[in-house]
Amino acid sequence: MGNLVAFINSFISYLLVFVVFAAVIIAAVKVGITARHKKDAKDAQNAQSADAQE
Fold first, then answer.
1. Per-domain residue ranges for the chain?
2. CA dist., res. 40 & res. 31, Å (int)
3. What integer pLDDT is reported at residue 18 of this predicted model?
4. Per the confidence metrics, is the pTM higher than 0.70?
5. How far from chain centre, in Å, is Cα 53?
6. Which residues cross the membrane (predicted)?
7. E strand or H helix at 22, and its extent?
8. CA torsion, points 46, 47, 51, 52, in degrees to nearest 10?
9. Closest to 45 in 3D by CA, of 2, 23, 37, 34
């Protein structure tokens, strides 16, 4: 019985670590996508204004 409790305790502990890592990875991907979209929009606006000045 003690082995089962130790196993469940370890399993929950590793599951929690996995969930934290997954949340950090998902947040990093979302921040990266948002930053890329902002950069692309800024570059498109700069290219458009450069074309208008010519």
1. 21-54
2. 14
3. 99
4. yes
5. 38
6. 6-29
7. helix 2-53
8. -30
9. 37
